[in-house]
Design brief:
single chain, mainly alpha, elongated
Length: 208
């Protein structure tokens, strides 16, 4: 009923206020009850994000379940919620789920995590460059352009040697990989490179 729906929205709003005031307390139980199938998607989304804010990694199992939800909007919003976790362990948790997620959800998670570059995130992105899904490979290569570092140069160069969309993305990412160590690495590789690789290296160096 409309009255019951209004009550549920009021619960989410009240929980959000408690979280903002640092008094999350037992809000998790109420919020979890609002995640059930059959409830309006917008309500479930709001409850999920409030739960993540309230409990941090304690809400991970709920987010992981939503990453595999039957509703596409729920899955993609859960992917956005991954960015709300500040614990570096979230990258490893996501990595353990990747093969069970829809390709669009994997790509969404990759794009979110690229804004939080850590060694754990870089390892996840590196692994995703070998995905069986082309869109996931492409997303990970593009993400490494901002979240990667010198440890990702070898993979980027290997992919950059291909003449396809992935190769184009890898060459663009080489030019954007942050850090002076990347430029030094590219320059050091010039001496032993064949003609094709020298062009890739010199182009990346010129665009950095």
């Amino acid at each position: 009923s409309a009255v019951e729906l209004d009550r549920q929205w009021a619960q989410v709003t009240a929980a959000g206020r408690l979280v903002a005031d640092g008094r999350a307390g037992a809000t998790g139980r109420v919020l979890r009850s609002l995640l059930a199938d059959g409830r309006p998607v917008a309500l479930r989304l709001a409850a999920l994000r409030t739960l993540a804010a309230a409990e941090g990694m304690g809400a991970w199992n709920a987010v992981a379940a939503m990453l595999r939800d039957a509703n596409p909007q729920m899955r993609l919003t859960a992917a956005a919620t991954v960015g709300d976790f500040k614990d570096p362990a979230v990258a490893a948790r996501v990595g353990g789920l990747m093969s069970s997620l829809q390709a669009d959800v994997q790509a969404a998670v990759i794009n979110v995590l690229a804004s939080h570059p850590t060694p754990e995130v870089r390892a996840l992105l590196e692994s995703a460059t070998a995905s069986v899904d082309e869109s996931v490979r492409l997303s990970s290569v593009k993400a490494l352009g901002t979240a990667g570092d010198v440890s990702n140069v070898a993979t980027m160069l290997r992919l950059a040697a291909t003449r396809d969309d992935l190769g184009d993305a890898a060459r663009a990412s080489l030019a954007r990989l942050p850090g002076e160590a990347v430029s030094e690495k590219l320059a050091a590789l010039l001496a032993g490179a064949d003609e094709g690789m020298r062009i890739i290296l010199l182009t990346a160096l010129g665009e950095r």
